[in-house]
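Exam review. A common question shows you a sequence with its structure tokens and asks you to describe the fold in words. Practice with the pair below. Do the first one on your own.
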Amino acid sequence: MVTNQASIKRNGVQDYVSLRATAAIITAFTLFMIYFFIATPVVSFEVWQGLFANIYMKAFTLATLISIMIHVRIGLWQVLTDYIKPAGLRAGLQYVLNLIAFAYVAVGLFVLWGV
């Protein structure tokens, strides 16, 4: 059977792979930040600004922010589908929570590229 990969509908395999890929990126970022705090004796504003002035760190942080948003969207969809049965309420909650997730990424983007 041939399926259309450009369709907007998601399937379980796509959700599974997306969750695992985003979790790997989030874990890598978390481990890097833990290493940074352990390896840096004094974290001052200049050190922090120097870390985020690097284009690779900005790209890594942006990828992490987007990964968090994707991870949250899929997780919220799964939880709300399981526990909120009225379709209208579920759709409203998904809409509001997805807006909040998008707002977090937008604010993170402005903060990140403002350094």
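Now try the second one, then compare your answer with the model answer below.
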Amino acid sequence: MKTRLIAQAVVLIALGVALAPFTSFPIGIARVNPTQHFINVIAAVLLGPWWATGIAGVIAILRISLGVGTILAFPGGMIVRCLPV
């Protein structure tokens, strides 16, 4: 069962990183990525809030390292976990 959760998390991370250059747009000092928020909500529903936080963190790290995101990707992505699902 744990393997299935990890595989789903990896697929969601890959989807979030692959779509980031095409769906992000600048607003002020941030680069907004609505696809990452959608993936975070899907992860929270399918895998739970702690997995969604981890997925959001990994996507944020990869987006920043690829130059597609800013440091605001961390609070912007991880705050979705706090919303009731």
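Model answer, second protein: The mean pLDDT is 86. The longest strand covers residues 25-27. Full marks require stating both points clearly.
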